[in-house]
Amino acid sequence: MGKKEKLDEIRKRMNEDKSLPLRSGATQLVFGDGNPETDILCVGEGPGYFEDQKGLPFVGNAGKLLDQLLEGAGMTRKNDVYITNVVHHRPPENRDPHPQEIASYGVYLDEIIETIDPEVIITLGRFSMNKFLPSAKISRIHGQEQVCSFKGREVIVVPMYHPAAALRSSEVMLQEREDFANLPNILAKIRNKKDASDEQKSVGEQMQLV
């Protein structure tokens, strides 16, 4: 089963799961969007009004800004990233998701992450950052790569401010644009390290065969 088919299967189970705590007040499930074959996963907070109406993440004003930020980093959502959230139904009045709600959807989010199998996870806002870095403060580490453990494997997390926060603050907007502009440098460094590690592993395997 390919990644797209696996994601479709997860989406189907989520649509059938009557226990998900936010589904009763939402129009529809907002699962994910982008390229499932990418190695970059963006994780936001939860759907707002426009996302709830369209069934896609980040399609309102914050989504338009996110698209601009990605383009500034030389990427598009269609080709270079996959985007999802920590909760997949709209919280009432766009309130913050509660810990129990995050935990309920987190079972499926973990499956999404394992399916995409990303080299880099870009968290958008503190709720997604706290999934991987529960004691971190976003004001201190935004735009900086962090090494985290997820399901027994190492993953690189780059915390970013939520685009909605950038729309509310000119200072955050400036930092957000700088962080995304620097993202290609971070990604290049991560991939160079991986290439060097793979080459070293290959050399070691060849020596064992001699």
UniProtKB/TrEMBL annotation:
Which EC number applies? Answer: 3.2.2.27
What Pfam families does its record include?
UDG
One GO BP on record is: DNA repair
Q: Which Gene Ontology molecular function entries are recorded, alphabetically?
A: 4 iron, 4 sulfur cluster binding; metal ion binding; uracil DNA N-glycosylase activity
Tell me the SUPFAM superfamilies matching this sequence: Uracil-DNA glycosylase-like
Keywords annotated in UniProt: 4Fe-4S, DNA damage, DNA repair, Hydrolase, Iron, Iron-sulfur, Metal-binding
Which InterPro entries does the entry mention? Answer: UDG_Type-4/5, Ura-DNA_glyco_family4, Uracil-DNA_glycosylase-like, Uracil-DNA_glycosylase-like_sf
Q: Which residue intervals define the domain Uracil-DNA glycosylase-like in the entry?
A: 31-187
Q: Which reaction does it catalyse?
A: Hydrolyzes single-stranded DNA or mismatched double-stranded DNA and polynucleotides, releasing free uracil
Concerning Gene3D superfamilies, the annotation shows:
Uracil-DNA glycosylase-like domain
Superkingdom of source? Bacteria
To which protein family does this belong?
Belongs to the uracil-DNA glycosylase (UDG) superfamily. Type 4 (UDGa) family.
Query: Which NCBIfam families does this one have?
Result: UDG_fam4 (TIGR00758)
Identification of the protein by name: Type-4 uracil-DNA glycosylase
This protein's species is Candidatus Woesebacteria bacterium RIFCSPLOWO2_01_FULL_39_21
